[in-house]
């Protein structure tokens, strides 16, 4: 598939052809990674972040969010639950919080590895190579860091640099290459329908997944958070759907931000997310692809199951202690924010069964 063919599929609206696409992706998924759905328990270590990404609800500039950082014991509780529930992996995710010291994280990794048979995935943002090496040596297996969009201009606008040496998009791609060099399995992905994104951009994102030969690829629809610059601008645009490009630019400038206007916008919806999952499966048949929380948030009843039926083979149930979950509000109405870990687990298993699949066993790494 080349860029043009991918764009054509992303725009496809014929129900029969789409059914065919999803059926094909589902068959490729079965042939290459089987019917097991790998469960990754997610622990959100900290919502403290030094970055100011324009779309994200825990950006540094969102001054009214209460900030938290879990204690080592709270993290170990999550690991215990993941193990008891039979999961193969614990994912530790946080904002880019340098208060999470290298040694603190390394100790956690060593403890988890000693006490449980869990693979460890980290999703802690752009850190120093020394930290990444330390964590790898402590036993971490995988690292997730999304590049969000391969449109460099858009990347720069939505990710204001945090320092003079911030390398922007190049730094992000560089991070993935360094991580792979250190022996991690690497995961990345993008937001679908991020304002300013075009269909051509999204098609190039998919080709970038293949170029990087990603082991894990997680994508989700952009969800407007009203307490963010991009969310406020998106609100203005939503009220003026038919406005021509110039008018849109003027409308969004009024909310105090020069909004990146796309002349060929991608819808931030689940149908597009399912097409992305399916096409990603066709491009990288043996990769691990989650049916993500953003998809589940968009459609609580069917989102996750439909993702699993469109080519995905991984789910990431949230095991963050319930009292912190609402604080990790990267977008509003995030699914599972009021549940206990047990409820979150039961829902995940029920959805795997509903999708006609079986819960995975073992670490669930990429098998080439
Ligand atoms: N809508 C959708 N996804 C978001 N993310 C952050 N903010 C939003 C939002 N408003 C995604 C980013 C990030 C991941 C952890 O969550 O892709 O990498």
Order of helices and strands: HHEHEHEHEHHEEHEEHHHHHEHHE
Question: What does the overall shape look like?
Answer: globular
Bin the helical content: 40-55%
List the uncertain runs: none
Termini gap: 21 Å
Q: How many helical elements?
A: 15
**Rounded radius of gyration (Å):** 19 Å
CATH superfamily: Aldolase class I
> How would you state the average pLDDT, rounded?
96
- Indicate how many domains the architecture comprises: 1
Broad structural category: alpha/beta
Explain what you see.
- This protein is an alpha/beta fold and 368 residues long.
- The protein has one domain: Aldolase class I (TIM Barrel), CATH 3.20.20.
- The chain is 44% helix and 11% strand.
- The chain is built from 15 helices and ten strands.
- It has helices at 3-11, 15-33, 72-84, 102-115, 129-138, 152-158, 168-181, 199-211, 229-238, 245-253, 270-283, 293-298, 303-308, 322-325, 341-354; strands at 36-46, 89-94, 119-123, 142-144, 185-188, 191-192, 216-217, 220-221, 314-315, 358-359.
- The strands form two sheets. Strands 1, 2, 3, 4, 5, 7, 9 and 10 form an eight-stranded parallel beta sheet that branches. It has a two-stranded parallel sheet with strand order 6-8.
- Strand 1 (36-46), helix 3 and strand 2 (89-94) form a beta-alpha-beta unit.
- Helix 8 (199-211) runs parallel beside helix 11 and helix 9 crosses helix 10.
- The relative contact order is 0.17.
- The mean pLDDT is 96.
- Bound molecules: 5'-deoxyadenosine.
């Amino acid at each position: 598939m080349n860029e043009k063919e991918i764009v054509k599929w992303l725009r496809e609206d014929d129900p029969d052809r789409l059914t065919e696409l999803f059926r094909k992706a589902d068959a490729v998924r079965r042939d290459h990674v089987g019917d097991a759905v790998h469960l990754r328990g997610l622990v959100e270590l900290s919502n403290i972040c030094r970055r100011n990404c324009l779309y994200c609800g825990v950006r540094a500039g969102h001054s009214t969010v209460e900030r938290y950082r879990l204690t080592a014991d709270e993290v170990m509780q999550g690991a215990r639950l993941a193990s008891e529930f039979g999961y193969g992996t614990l994912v530790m995710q946080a904002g880019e919080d340098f208060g999470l010291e290298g040694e603190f994280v390394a100790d956690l990794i060593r403890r988890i590895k000693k006490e449980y048979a869990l693979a460890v995935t980290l999703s802690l943002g752009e850190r120093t190579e020394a930290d990444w090496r330390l964590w790898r040596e402590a036993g971490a297996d995988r690292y997730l860091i999304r590049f969000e969009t391969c449109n460099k201009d858009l990347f720069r606008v939505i990710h204001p640099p945090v320092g003079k040496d911030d390398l922007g998009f190049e730094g992000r791609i560089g991070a993935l290459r360094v991580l792979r060099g250190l022996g991690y399995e690497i995961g990345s992905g993008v937001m679908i329908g991020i304002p300013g994104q075009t269909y051509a951009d999204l098609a190039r994102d998919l080709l970038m997944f293949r170029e990087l030969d990603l082991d894990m690829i997680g994508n989700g629809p952009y969800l407007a958070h009203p307490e963010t610059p991009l969310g406020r601008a998106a609100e203005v645009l939503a009220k003026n759907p038919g406005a021509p490009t110039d008018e849109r630019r003027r409308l969004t400038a009024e909310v105090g931000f020069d909004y990146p206007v796309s002349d060929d916008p991608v819808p931030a919806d689940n149908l597009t997310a399912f097409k992305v999952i399916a096409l990603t499966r066709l491009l990288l048949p043996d990769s691990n692809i989650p049916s993500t929380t953003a998809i589940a948030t968009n459609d609580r009843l069917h989102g996750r199951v439909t993702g699993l039926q469109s080519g995905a083979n991984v789910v990431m149930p949230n095991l963050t202690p319930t009292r912190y979950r609402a604080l990790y509000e990267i977008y509003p109405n995030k699914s599972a924010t009021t549940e206990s870990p047990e409820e979150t687990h039961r829902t995940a298993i029920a959805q795997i069964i509903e999708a006609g699949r079986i819960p995975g066993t073992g670490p669930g790494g990429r098998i080439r």
